[in-house]
Specification:
- Helix content is 17%, strand content 36%.
- The protein has 2 domains: 61 residues, Roll (2,3-Dihydroxybiphenyl 1,2-Dioxygenase, domain 1); 59 residues, 2,3-Dihydroxybiphenyl 1,2-Dioxygenase, domain 1 (Roll).
- The strands form 2 sheets. It has a 4-stranded mixed sheet with strand order 1-4-3-2, with helices on one face. Strands 5-8-7-6 form a 4-stranded mixed sheet, covered by helices on one side.
- It starts with 6 loop residues before the first strand and ends with a strand.
- It is built from 2 helices and 8 strands.
- With 127 residues, the protein is of the alpha/beta class.
- This is VOC domain-containing protein.
C-alpha cells in the first residue's frame, strides 16, 4: 500500500535562519519556495538525494515545542549517512553542537543527535 515517506513538514520560528540552516549548512536542495500571502507564510520544499523531501513552513507566532524530545508527536527526524563520525565532524566544523556518538543496542549502528535552529532534534544514523 505505502511505498516510502514522501516528506516531513517542519514549522520554524525564523524562516530565514532555518532556510539558511537547511540549505547552506545541511546542503538540502531547494525544489520550490512559495510565499502564501493569505497566511503570511512561506513554504520551502527541500530535497534529499533519495527523493524524500522536507517542507519547511513559517507561520506568524507558532507555539513552541512543549519539550524535547519526549513530547507527543514527532520525536525527531533521522537522516541516514555513510559515515557518522565524518558527518559529526563536518557539522561541528560548521559550528553546530553535536552529541557524542552512540551505538544502537538493537542494530549495532552508530548514531548521534544535533538540533536545528528551533531545537528540533535531528539524528545522524549510520548505514
Amino acid at each position: 500500500m505505502f511505498e516510502r515517506i514522501h516528506h516531513v513538514a517542519i514549522i520554524c520560528s525564523d524562516y530565514q535562519k532555518s532556510k539558511h540552516f537547511y540549505t547552506q549548512v545541511l546542503g538540502f536542495k531547494i525544489i520550490a519556495e512559495n510565499f502564501r500571502a493569505e497566511r503570511n507564510s512561506y513554504k520551502l520544499d527541500l530535497a534529499l538525494p533519495d527523493g524524500s523531501q522536507i517542507e519547511l513552513f513559517s507561520f506568524p507566532n507558532p507555539p513552541a515545542r512543549p519539550s524535547s524530545p519526549e513530547a507527543q508527536g514527532l520525536r525527531h527526524l533521522a537522516l541516514q549517512v555513510k559515515d557518522v563520525e565524518k558527518t559529526k565532524t563536518e557539522l561541528e566544523d560548521k559550528g553546530l553542537e553535536v552529541e557524542p556518538i552512540r551505538i544502537d543496542e538493537f542494530t549495532g549502528k552508530s548514531f548521534t543527535f544535533f538540533k536545528d535552529p528551533d531545537g528540533l532534534p535531528l539524528e545522524i544514523y549510520g548505514q
